[in-house]
Amino acid sequence: MAGALVKFLSVLGFSLICLKMVASTKTAPEIPTIDQAYSKISNSITVEWAAVPGATSYLLTAKDGNTVIETTVANSPGTVTGLKAATLYQITVRSISPAGRSQASPPKQAKTVLAAPILQVSSPSSDSILVQWEAVHMAIGFSVSIMQANGLGRIWKENTTNTSLTFTSLDAGTLYTIKAYAWNANGTPGDDSTCNQRTSPGTPANIQVSFDSGALKASVSWAPTEGAFNYTVMALSDSSRLSCSTTFSSCTIYSLQCGTKYLISVSASNDAGSSRSTSAVTLKTVACAPGRVAIQEDPPGHLSVAWSNVDLGDYYVAFVKSDDGLEVHCNTSLTQCNFLSECGFTYFISVFAYNKAGQSPLGDVFNYTTAPCCPSDINPVLVSSDRVEIVWSPVRGAELYETKAVDGFNVVECNDTAPACTLSALECDTKYNITVYSFSEVRGSNTSCTSQFITTAPCSPEIKNISKDDFSMINVRWRSTNDEATYTVTAQGEKGLHQCSSTGESCTLGGLPCGSVFFVTAVAETPAGRSLPSYSVPLETAPCCSASLTVTQVTQSVINVSWTVGTGALTYVTVLQSHTGQSKCHTHQNHCLLGCITCGINYTVAVKAVSATGLTADCAYQSYSSSACCPLGVKLYRLGPNGIRIHWQASRGSANYSTDLHGSKGIFTCAPSAGLSFCDVTEIPCGDVYTVMVSPVAETGLKLTFCPKKIYSVTCSGSTLGMVIYRGKRNVE
């Protein structure tokens, strides 16, 4: 019984310990104590406190009446944001741990700083900037500072209780940075506000005006103004207002009026505004052309020219020009001039007014005509087979010329005020009776004018065909309806010009270079002139042959044929022909390999050049003898202690041979006498391995190197005896 009681008490004690441990783990963290709370920005308060053991975060609370704003932070210091400016808040802090949150700390009061003033800036003049803002809650004063945006120069700072401030004595056209903030009754500054403002530019200086009397325009220039983005030039008169704008230091005003006085001024502007306009510069344009010009011939032979007076005209010049180019003038400050005149002339009269700006614009040009005369020097100029151009000297008093060309019942006419006429739609190779009549409103048409005959140029021939004969001559045939015409055929190409002539309907062109393209035309010629060329017909000559042909034996059964490239050739066909057969290749290169060649056979080599259009030229024929066949049955025999005989079976046909033995102790050669199929090499060392090749020798003396090679071992037995042992064959690469 006592043991059971002891056991019960032990269990009970253990349970109490566990309950105590559980209770201790759920205890909330300690209450933090706020060290200080302050505001540096108008919408936030920063709080500092001592850290609480076991706290993982903190809850900051800012209370303003019924408004509560909370923020959770990790540690001290912490900041509550989203607050109102210039407002007193009750600040508390709670510590937070996994067990929960503590009670709120004793509250601490803190007030947010003043809000930043909202600035409105402008530049009322080129040397001042006006800064304005709305009143800030709880503010009793403001500080405003200004400096150049590039950091140069001094800083101006002003304190004021007003809501506007003007900075003066600034540089024109310069960008400034303005900074402002408010302070409260304690002198605590609030948030600041910053903005940039440029002063308006200064007035442009050194105005220069240049007037163009011919184009009625004025070019205005000035010295560039600091900070100016744009310039505006104004030209004011009693009746008009003209302007031009530019970003440069010069501008041109167009469409000025003659006889007008303008006041010209220049102003500069930028994003801040415009400068004051410069002092006006006076510009007087040229006078307008005189009007109401009156012309009289009284008595005959005397012309009187009168006109009206114009504004700004200092004096006048009247020009009288006859239709033969002779011109006279008079200079007067009055409004009338008198000139001598002759019958049969047309006079052109113009009057100009002058002042210091120059000559007035050209006004109306008047003409006065006396009785006309017939043209006496009619000069027909043949232009083509269907047109005739006729020119003559101007005649006195002619206002209109009527030209007629008559061919039987057909009449072609043209009327013109100029002393020239072009008669078109005429028939080629035809005779026309041509008459030129002069006409004026006063005297009418002069019907006593004489006529003359002219024949138009021949008709253009039509090329019918172009052919080539067996002698490489080009025959050109055409069709034409001309009488007694001489025809010239021209072939024009990159390699020159070739011609032939004939009075018939064909001619022959010779000597045309190969590999060329020509355009062939035909022209007819008579004493009346030349026809227009016929339509051109293209002509292509056969491609040029190669300048040289080379045949090289590559192996016993393969040769390489090469040649130089010929003009106009695109591809080549090479043919190797013998009584045993034919080998052919077609290539765009300048060489070709031909196989299946029989050794010791005579061949004929032919090369044909082919152009891009398929024209061919049989170019080269050359005899070629293939090399002699390589010998068979090459064997070596000992001749005494230091001699070797090389024996072989000669191939068909007669050939000379050469034998080479290559060993480590030297190279040995021998050549047989004519007609023999062996040769001897004396004094050859034994105990060595030799590579033996017997090859035919070409007629040129060139030794062919493509025959097979055999390897023999020459052994030594005793001092004088030995054996020749065949070791194998090695092919030639």
UniProtKB/TrEMBL annotation:
Domain Fibronectin type-III: from-to ranges: 28-115, 116-203, 289-373, 457-544
Signal peptide span: 1-24
KW Transmembrane (keyword) present: no
One Pfam family linked to the record: fn3
Species: Moschus moschiferus
Encoding gene, per UniProt annotation: FNDC7
UniProt-listed InterPro entries: FN3_dom, FN3_sf, Ig-like_fold
Entry keywords, A to Z: Signal
Keyword Zinc: no
Name this protein carries in UniProt: Fibronectin type III domain containing 7
